[in-house]
């Protein structure tokens, strides 16, 4: 059976913490930033921990 390759797009988008949680960048910071309040853009610019359901899929893509 061949080795499973890591998904190259996923390894650029996700970071694994020491405890095994998956950190990701939040959506909504690409365009139309003038229309969003400063409070909202600061909140969107923070990293988030991926949900438990998504973590299972992401770990598979990362080959973990």
TrEMBL record:
The keyword Ribosomal protein appears for this protein: yes
Top-rank lineage group of the source organism: Bacteria
Keywords: Ribonucleoprotein, Ribosomal protein
GO terms for biological process, alphabetical: translation
InterPro entries: Ribosomal_bL35, Ribosomal_bL35-like, Ribosomal_bL35_CS, Ribosomal_bL35_sf
Similarity annotation: Belongs to the bacterial ribosomal protein bL35 family.
Listed NCBIfam families: rpmI_bact
Protein's name according to its UniProt entry: Large ribosomal subunit protein bL35
Originating organism: Agromyces rhizosphaerae
């Amino acid at each position: 059976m061949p080795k499973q390759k890591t998904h190259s797009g996923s390894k650029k988008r996700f970071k694994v913490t020491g405890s095994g949680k998956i950190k990701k960048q939040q959506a909504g910071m690409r365009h139309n930033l003038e229309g969003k309040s400063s409070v909202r853009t600061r909140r969107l610019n923070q990293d988030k921990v991926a949900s438990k359901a998504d973590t299972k899929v992401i770990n598979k893509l990362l080959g973990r």
